[in-house]
Amino acid sequence: MLEQLESEFRLPGDFTEPVMAAARQSLQALPPAPADHTHLPFFTLDPATSTDLDQAMFLQNTARGFRVYYAIADVPAIVPLGSTLDEVTRARGQTYYLPHRRIGLHPSIISEDHGSLLPGATRRAFIWIMDLDPEGALENIALERSSIRSRAKLDYPTAQEALDRQHASEQLRLLRRIGLLRIHQEQLRHGASLNLPEQEVQVDSRGNYQLRSRFPLPVEDYNAQISLLTGIAAAQLMIGAGVGILRTMPQPGPRELEEFRMHSRILGHPWDAGSSYGQFLRTLDISRPAELVLMHRAAALFRGADYSVINGQPANELLQAALAAPYTHATAPLRRLVDRFVLLTCHLIVTGQRIPSTLHQALEELPALMRASSTEASRVSKASIDLIEAWVMRHRVGQEFQAVVLRPEAAANGQGTERPGLVQLLDEAVTGSFRGPAEAASLVRVRLTRADPQKRTCEFEQVAIMVTPQAT
């Protein structure tokens, strides 16, 4: 059934032989980088199984604060504008992740080999050199095309354990320090980062699929802050030059903010008027049902993320409202189409070169291309999770479970429509629709009434209310 999703959503198939030949030819013709930073001990930090490594970093203390060297795979050198690879990747938009396989934006010879910043291999990269003051504020930006050689491939659990047990390397300690400072900078500008648990699909030794909830580790937040810093730096360069493409998001309206404040009071964790939205979110403990529901509602508060070409708009139209700063995607060119064009644009800006007409035209086309692929990626990701949920629960119809109500059931309105509620089981990484009168954030006992892999649905009915929101 997982394979059927590929045809249902019309996902890209395997790369054709002419495309593979173009990839091999491009790699063979790849010239050496114009500079050399192989003396710096870069490292990568990713999920343990990742092989498409877009980013590597090296961090330093300086007399004025900190210096961040952030290397991003030089995909534009491998995929020139107007080439066969350029055409094929524009049609794909991004890498699609399914439980049974990954459908790459690029052929694996690029994304998991010669373009990936694997340890011990010399690779071309764009190197962002960003100087921060002692408080973590961005002061200076430089960008070079160079060669690097990563020294280590670190993974999140191992890195977090090293930090927790106080035997982390100097680089990891610096990452934590800079990450915490950047989180503070985020709060100062009234930005926010969400910290929702992720549903992960795992395959056991017998090939059986399982679901689990995974809570992001603190080191993942620190790592993300370096990526966000780079996206903010890239946005500054492009806005200053009046050319480029940004990831934008409108501000929520006063009514939406007031509703969120009201929900926070109802759910027993009021948003104090003296704290910013971002500061408030970082006080939430998502192991508590009411606060988990608030985090879900916070995710829905900021909507309308889009890609916008810079074209003389007012500053407020170029803002990523959740981050409270202009921002762009610049750090994942192996997995996301737009990043390649951002890197190329930024490098032309800092080196004082003219932006060619082919790049201008590509920038104009990118918002529509990214909207289409992002919508499809979200749909297939949700369908995959829904399918696995129904598959693992199919033999448990009639059983009862403890759950938290994420969204209450909506009664029929004047048009006669109604909407089931949404619950998340406490002891299983499963969400599903439910029928019952319980309010949001209530702890309830529900019975599984249907688990249909074909329709990708899990349906529950309320048996009893265990704890009301006011008591949580």
In short:
The protein has 472 residues and is α+β, with helices and mostly antiparallel strands. It has helices at residues 2-8, 17-28, 75-78, 84-92, 108-114, 156-164, 170-188, 218-241, 254-266, 277-281, 289-301, 337-350, 357-393; strands at residues 43-46, 55-62, 65-73, 96-97, 102-103, 122-132, 138-149, 152-155, 198-203, 209-214, 245-248, 306-309, 400-407, 421-425, 431-435, 443-452, 457-467. 37% of the residues lie in helices and 24% in strands.
Tell me what the structure shows.
With 472 residues, this protein is of the alpha+beta class. The protein has 2 domains: 2-252 and 302-391, no CATH class; 394-471, Nucleic acid-binding proteins (OB fold (Dihydrolipoamide Acetyltransferase, E2P)), CATH 2.40.50. The protein has helices at residues 2-8, 17-28, 75-78, 84-92, 108-114, 156-164, 170-188, 218-241, 254-266, 277-281, 289-301, 337-350, 357-393; strands at residues 43-46, 55-62, 65-73, 96-97, 102-103, 122-132, 138-149, 152-155, 198-203, 209-214, 245-248, 306-309, 400-407, 421-425, 431-435, 443-452, 457-467. Strands 13-14-15-17-16 form a 5-stranded mixed barrel. It has a 4-stranded antiparallel beta sheet with strand order 2-3-6-7, covered by helices on one side. Strands 1-8 form a two-stranded parallel ribbon. Strand 4 (96-97) and strand 5 form a beta hairpin. Helix 9 (254-266) runs antiparallel to helix 11 and helix 12 runs antiparallel to helix 13 (357-393). The relative contact order is 0.12.
